[in-house]
Amino acid sequence: MSAIYPADIQPVAEPGTGFVAKGDSVSRIDGRAKVTGQACYVAEHVTPDMAHGVVVNSTIAKGRITALHLDEARAVPGVLAILSHLHRPRTRRLDLFYKDMTAPGGSPFKPFHSEGVLYSGQPVALVLAETFETARYAASLVRVSYEEDSHQTSLLTNLYRSHEPSRLKAGYSPPPKPTGDAEAAFEAAPVKIQGDFYHGVEHHNPLEMHASTVIRSEDGHLTIYDKTQSSQNSRWVVSQVFGLGKDKVTVKNPFIGGAFGSGLRPQYQLILAVMGALELKRSVRVVLTRQQMFTFGHRPETWQRLKLAADSDGTLKSVMHEAIAETSRIEDYVEVVVNWSGQMYHCDNVKLDYSLVALDHYTPMDMRAPGAAHGMHALEVGMDELSYALGMDPLALRLKNYAERDAAKDLPFSTKELRACYEQGAERFGWDKRPLAPRSMKEGTELIGWGMASGQWDAMQMLAKARAVLHADGRLEVSSAASDIGTGTYTVMSLIAAAAMGLPLEQVIFKLGDSTLPFAPIEGGSSHVTTVGSAVEGVCEKLQKKLWKLAKAMPDSPFEITRFSEVEFANGGMQLIKMPNTAVPLTAILAHAGQASIEEKYLMLPNALKQKNYVRAVHSAVFCEVRVDEDFGTVRVTRVVSAIAAGQIMSAKTARSQIVGGVVWGISQALHEETHADHGLGRFMNHNLSEYHVAVNADIHDIDVIFVEEDDRIVSRLGAKGVGEIGLVGVAAAVSNAVYHATGRRVRSTPMTPDKVMAPG
Ligand code: MOS
Questions:
Q1: What is the mean pLDDT of residues 379-401?
Q2: How far does the centroid of ligand 1 lie from the alpha carbon of residue 338, in Å?
Q3: 4, 294, 297, 451: which one has the fewest Cβ atoms less than 10 Å from its Cβ?
């Protein structure tokens, strides 16, 4: 195989880190490699024979390519080939329908499939050249002639033609059937509110651009570094599309510079890079530009109408929540937007509705807490509005209607410590000092407001495999084809393994990010700890049993007549629980057995029979303070307390980072992020980080995270749930509610830019 530079490094904890227990706070073990540049991202891998591909994107939103004018580009010295729908390697099938693999289901966009143009920014050609600069220059010379059709890219002007979604996505739950009579209850109730909500498009914008580096060896084997949330998913897709067997393709993703859902599905640069490598029979790298990061997938533009009604004591009498979201002409993208409104609070009369409008954009895509980020925003702003209509404290209203069970499914929650989140969050924030009336706190030119909101997200578990090898020198290697998209997977998995085996953290190596490792699902849905973490603990338990058997067989073994339940693993050895001084180092067990290493494999299957009797969810209570400059309409979020119930926390520091990151994004959603389309061109215009605003350091102040006590053995054997997404849910609503408390102005759309905050009424 061609040499790859630089070699992958394997993160391991710093020497001297020592013994750890589940729930400990350790710095991420890949931190040093990342900040020193040793950890290489996709586009940093290189081989001596590498060619470079640059993508040309369509400039129209809908129509057909009538001609590609390539002569000028071809004439540039160093240009090797130009691929397009007219000229590309044979594919076995481009009409992929994901249903077997773990990526979100559906019929994804097929690059270079035909002359048809389905959205502005669609890849229409790939220029391959000896250098990146040559490819980029030649790509600028490609001219495309189109026959243009009229397009529709505005959700709000197309609401009238919404349709029921087709249910292609595994795990998608359509809104439940109505309960009671929500319309009649609304009419009859003494206190009611209603409002329309609008959320614009958001793009993921991970720091690392999507890229694929395809390294081709002499025998034609492809080693692909891909920006993906699952190496095995990308491997499967390449095999399906190009008819290349499992042994012909290896996909790696040892380090990922953020993804947030944009790497759940393999993106078009992967298919194009492989096409390039097959065409040229050499290694090829394709990196998208920041602008091109706006040419696939986004959080969908969504319109919602919410109606809530209550008795004068605050008892909810009616919940009606309707959402209409955009999808593409390519397929139906679905997410759970309104279902939360039937789960969060107890109400006997609930009516929920969700439909889609197909637009001439790329298909929307999961983005951190997909669906909940919008649906919970509407519900939680609506609850705030209802509290003012009732003259009731917003937190008291939520407690009044606290749901002990999921009414729609008529099931209990596996665990739900939301009440503790409310109590501890309120106490930490000082909520009891909050004056009820809006516009009652002011300092200098700034109005001060306090708002709160609740959050909920799923606690999922999928299936995974893990392998563990304990070496004679006491090093433990555990592996699974998991991903670490910056969330701390290396750290938490190493910690779970080290804690299980009683080994120092630096003696544990956790290998991930390679499609040849034991099966792991996509890193998505906040499920990696419950899934891969449980597999890691499971394989360690098998290893423990093997060690116990070997220890029993040692000459004069003090463990000879012990049962497995009577031993524990700590301080680098196995010991009797009741007499910890009776201990043997794990290295001694292997030495006596004359084994260089011992190995175990484990398949973690979720206990579906047990799990189906419960609704499994994580919860949050978010409290925030804003300061609004009345003259300029600018909002500063000066204080956030986020109290989270997510089962047992495995790795306290990285878990806290997940919540802080979610809060930062929630503030960003609340105040900054929106991709604007020019509907005349059918094109996203602010496709760069100077015009697509995200929260920066100056926007972020005090963020306090509380993990309340919870232990959930139904979601996972670890007692853990997941923390990847819940940190974002509820934040934008809490900010919106705080803005109302500060100003008396109700803003029902995000981002809450100064024009909206200052608008009359
Ligand atoms: Mo996430 S949107 O579950 O990658």
A1: 98
A2: 18
A3: 4
